[in-house]
Amino acid sequence: MPEPPIWRAADPNAPGGWVAPDERQPMSPPNVTPPWQPPPPPIYPRRQQSQGLAVASMVLGLIGLFVGWICLGPIPGVVALILGFVALSQIKRSPDLNGGKPFAIVGIIAGALNVCIYGAFFILGIVSNLFH
After folding, report:
1. Using one digit for the tens of pLDDT, what is the confidence trace for 13-31?
2. Of 122, 121, 109, which is closest to residue 77 (Cα–Cα)?
3. What is the pTM of this model?
Protein backbone atom coordinates (compact mmCIF):
# COMPACT_ATOMS: atom_id res chain seq x y z
CA MET A 1 0.00 0.00 0.00
CA PRO A 2 1.43 3.44 -0.97
CA GLU A 3 2.23 5.95 1.71
CA PRO A 4 -0.24 8.82 2.12
CA PRO A 5 1.15 12.21 1.10
CA ILE A 6 2.43 14.50 3.82
CA TRP A 7 0.50 17.73 3.77
CA ARG A 8 2.52 19.59 6.35
CA ALA A 9 6.14 19.88 7.21
CA ALA A 10 7.54 17.16 9.38
CA ASP A 11 8.94 19.75 11.80
CA PRO A 12 6.74 22.87 12.14
CA ASN A 13 9.50 24.66 14.08
CA ALA A 14 12.02 24.33 11.24
CA PRO A 15 12.63 27.45 9.10
CA GLY A 16 9.90 27.63 6.46
CA GLY A 17 8.04 24.82 8.17
CA TRP A 18 5.11 26.96 9.18
CA VAL A 19 4.02 30.28 7.65
CA ALA A 20 1.14 32.39 8.92
CA PRO A 21 -1.79 32.49 6.47
CA ASP A 22 -1.51 36.21 5.90
CA GLU A 23 2.21 35.93 5.06
CA ARG A 24 1.85 33.15 2.48
CA GLN A 25 2.46 33.71 -1.19
CA PRO A 26 -0.78 33.67 -3.14
CA MET A 27 -1.39 30.28 -4.59
CA SER A 28 -2.25 30.49 -8.24
CA PRO A 29 -1.91 27.43 -10.37
CA PRO A 30 0.33 27.88 -13.42
CA ASN A 31 -1.27 28.61 -16.83
CA VAL A 32 -4.46 29.95 -15.31
CA THR A 33 -5.89 33.15 -16.74
CA PRO A 34 -6.23 36.05 -14.33
CA PRO A 35 -9.70 37.11 -13.25
CA TRP A 36 -11.74 38.93 -15.85
CA GLN A 37 -11.05 42.62 -16.28
CA PRO A 38 -12.88 44.96 -18.61
CA PRO A 39 -10.97 45.83 -21.77
CA PRO A 40 -9.26 49.21 -21.89
CA PRO A 41 -11.30 52.01 -23.43
CA PRO A 42 -10.77 52.55 -27.16
CA ILE A 43 -8.40 55.28 -28.20
CA TYR A 44 -10.13 57.70 -30.52
CA PRO A 45 -8.25 60.27 -32.54
CA ARG A 46 -8.58 63.79 -31.23
CA ARG A 47 -11.56 65.42 -32.85
CA GLN A 48 -11.45 68.94 -34.08
CA GLN A 49 -13.61 71.44 -32.35
CA SER A 50 -16.16 73.09 -34.54
CA GLN A 51 -15.22 76.66 -35.29
CA GLY A 52 -17.84 79.02 -33.89
CA LEU A 53 -16.91 81.83 -36.27
CA ALA A 54 -17.34 79.53 -39.25
CA VAL A 55 -20.81 78.46 -38.13
CA ALA A 56 -21.79 82.08 -37.41
CA SER A 57 -20.56 83.06 -40.87
CA MET A 58 -22.67 80.37 -42.51
CA VAL A 59 -25.79 81.25 -40.52
CA LEU A 60 -25.48 84.97 -41.20
CA GLY A 61 -24.78 84.37 -44.89
CA LEU A 62 -27.89 82.20 -45.26
CA ILE A 63 -30.01 84.64 -43.27
CA GLY A 64 -28.79 87.46 -45.52
CA LEU A 65 -29.67 85.49 -48.64
CA PHE A 66 -33.10 84.26 -47.66
CA VAL A 67 -34.65 86.70 -45.19
CA GLY A 68 -32.15 89.55 -44.92
CA TRP A 69 -33.60 91.39 -47.91
CA ILE A 70 -36.75 92.13 -45.89
CA CYS A 71 -35.15 94.64 -43.53
CA LEU A 72 -31.47 93.94 -42.91
CA GLY A 73 -30.00 94.81 -46.28
CA PRO A 74 -26.44 93.73 -47.05
CA ILE A 75 -25.32 93.87 -43.39
CA PRO A 76 -25.57 90.09 -42.74
CA GLY A 77 -23.66 89.42 -45.96
CA VAL A 78 -20.83 91.76 -45.02
CA VAL A 79 -20.60 90.31 -41.50
CA ALA A 80 -20.68 86.78 -42.95
CA LEU A 81 -17.79 87.63 -45.26
CA ILE A 82 -15.71 89.05 -42.41
CA LEU A 83 -16.41 86.15 -40.05
CA GLY A 84 -15.78 83.59 -42.80
CA PHE A 85 -12.37 85.03 -43.70
CA VAL A 86 -11.36 85.29 -40.03
CA ALA A 87 -12.44 81.68 -39.46
CA LEU A 88 -10.47 80.49 -42.51
CA SER A 89 -7.35 82.28 -41.29
CA GLN A 90 -7.69 80.65 -37.85
CA ILE A 91 -8.21 77.24 -39.44
CA LYS A 92 -5.17 77.75 -41.67
CA ARG A 93 -3.04 78.87 -38.72
CA SER A 94 -3.89 75.88 -36.49
CA PRO A 95 -5.80 73.14 -38.35
CA ASP A 96 -5.39 70.63 -35.51
CA LEU A 97 -7.41 72.81 -33.10
CA ASN A 98 -9.91 74.49 -35.41
CA GLY A 99 -12.38 72.86 -37.73
CA GLY A 100 -15.39 74.00 -39.68
CA LYS A 101 -13.78 74.90 -42.99
CA PRO A 102 -16.88 73.90 -45.01
CA PHE A 103 -19.04 76.16 -42.81
CA ALA A 104 -16.70 79.09 -43.39
CA ILE A 105 -16.69 78.52 -47.15
CA VAL A 106 -20.50 78.35 -47.29
CA GLY A 107 -20.66 81.56 -45.22
CA ILE A 108 -18.23 83.35 -47.55
CA ILE A 109 -20.12 82.25 -50.67
CA ALA A 110 -23.54 83.16 -49.24
CA GLY A 111 -22.25 86.49 -47.93
CA ALA A 112 -20.63 87.31 -51.28
CA LEU A 113 -23.86 86.47 -53.12
CA ASN A 114 -25.80 88.68 -50.73
CA VAL A 115 -23.42 91.61 -51.23
CA CYS A 116 -23.38 91.08 -55.02
CA ILE A 117 -27.17 91.03 -55.22
CA TYR A 118 -27.44 94.24 -53.21
CA GLY A 119 -24.66 95.80 -55.27
CA ALA A 120 -26.56 94.91 -58.44
CA PHE A 121 -29.77 96.42 -57.02
CA PHE A 122 -27.85 99.56 -56.05
CA ILE A 123 -26.32 99.93 -59.52
CA LEU A 124 -29.68 99.18 -61.15
CA GLY A 125 -31.29 101.89 -59.03
CA ILE A 126 -28.62 104.45 -60.01
CA VAL A 127 -28.86 103.57 -63.71
CA SER A 128 -32.67 103.69 -63.67
CA ASN A 129 -32.58 107.15 -62.05
CA LEU A 130 -30.13 108.40 -64.66
CA PHE A 131 -32.35 107.40 -67.58
CA HIS A 132 -35.63 108.32 -66.04
Report:
1. 666 566 666 666 666 666 6
2. 109
3. 0.61
